[in-house]
């Protein structure tokens, strides 16, 4: 079986495989996350529907109780006078006073308010636990038990307020002869009224929140949860960590009865089926991923093994050992490459002896031809005599210019063809000193090469023709200040040397024409159309090869810039 490392050693496959893994895992994460969130969302939606139904039933239950109270008072005011009289005898009276009033009343054998009220409480399923009567004389509480018993007690205002805040209150104002005489408050026991509706199943729970009070009902396992915080959360339906695992909650707010309820249930009840489907989908996705990856690994490994055989053959070819590549049964592009390589090997020895050696000799001859300069030996003696005569005639500047000219020609003739960059720059400085003599104080120049460039070996006499090009095409014998700057610096890919002045400008056509000369085997241009720069490019290209890049452009805001870039050698 092919090893995974066979193709991971190759950059092209390692990069491709890592991109493949990243893309697949990225989209798999998004897809699975979306599917999981959809599963959770569907479960929450199901629980929300159930919880909303329970809450609606609870609201209807409370509305039924309050409606029965309204109906009772409607009957009280519009019914027989005996029931109404009995109520007003009772309202604000002590038990003894009410008993005496009942005995003295001619209607004491008819409807009694207390018995009618007891029937109302029983009809509510004894969810009405207290009826508190607020009159000008007393605050009376009638407490009812689920067994039908009642207890009468007189309350203080503070005790009455505390009692009313402990349950859901429904209050009816009492009027007699169009005058307000007090109120009656019915206290509804919410846990008793709603427990069976909000917590119909085992394992569910609910907490009713009324102001500072909370009433919990249902499974005790959820009683320790922070329901008050849950009631303030957004969204109102979500999954949280419960005491015994994940739980779902739903928050409902009753505007009509001024309470909030938080219902909880095990998350597994609503998520089990959906998470099972998610797990099955995830397993299928992972299985498909591994199968497809295995196919790619096998294919990449076979290709990488063949590529390594090609690279091995090419590596041996460097030492003139030509090993043909075994193509086998392959019929793809790699096989075409191997066949072309084998064909190349069959002719390579002939090419080495006929083409390569011939090219080397031609380059050497070209280097000698292009670097050759004027070498009239009598010129040195003549220049020396001119310098001495200038000193005798009191012209030291002319004498120095003559000495500089002689030094320039000596460097051209006597220095080696390949010199350090610092010596090449020194020759160019000598030439610029001569130009400063000719232009007086109308010419300034500045040379600044980083130290790292000084020891780089280079063909001699190529900077001076570039600088001379500025004087030939841009500078005129006028009063304008002329500036030439030479700079050299290290860049990320190699070295960059720039020559620029402050006068002149090239048209777009001129730039295109000149830059077309700075490529190998460029067509010859007409005389006077950049032949000097083409000569420089050819000499540098013969020495540096494809490491050389040369270009010319306008130097904003004015002037022309010639840039020479020497790329770093690529180590194989």
Explain what this protein looks like in three dimensions.
This protein has 572 residues and is of the alpha+beta class. The protein is 53% helix and 21% strand. The strands form four sheets. A five-stranded antiparallel β-sheet has the order 3-2-1-5-4, with helices on both faces. The protein has a five-stranded antiparallel β-sheet with strand order 7-6-10-9-8. Strands 12-14-15-17-16 form a five-stranded mixed β-sheet. Helix 2 (11-78) packs across helix 7 (190-198), helix 2 runs antiparallel to helix 9 (268-317) and helix 9 (268-317) crosses helix 10 (333-371). The two termini are 31 Å apart. Mean pLDDT is 81; it is low at 369-375.
The whole-angstrom Rg is: 53 Å
pLDDT < 50 runs, ≥5 residues: 369-375
Separation of the first and last Cα atoms: 31 Å
Spatial shape: elongated
Percent helix: 40-55%
Main sheet attributes: strand count, strand direction, barrel closure = 5 strands, antiparallel
Q: Approximately what portion of the residues adopt beta-strand conformation?
A: 15-25%
Helix segment count? 17
Mean pLDDT comes to 81
What's the count of strands? Answer: 17
Structural class: alpha+beta
Strand order, main sheet: write it out: 3-2-1-5-4
Which keywords apply here?
single chain; 572 residues; alpha+beta; five-stranded antiparallel β-sheet; 17 helices; 53% helix; elongated
Mind sketching the topology for me?
Elements: H1 5-8, H2 11-78, H3 81-90, H4 95-104, H5 113-123, E1 128-135, E2 139-144, E3 150-154, H6 157-165, E4 168-176, E5 179-188, H7 190-198, E6 205-210, E7 213-218, H8 227-231, E8 237-242, E9 245-254, E10 259-266, H9 268-317, H10 333-371, H11 378-392, H12 396-414, E11 418-420, H13 421-439, E12 443-449, H14 451-454, E13 457-459, H15 463-473, E14 482-491, E15 494-501, H16 508-515, H17 531-544, E16 548-554, E17 560-567
Parallel strand pairs: 12-14
Antiparallel strand pairs: 1-2, 1-5, 2-3, 4-5, 6-7, 6-10, 8-9, 9-10, 11-13, 14-15, 15-17, 16-17
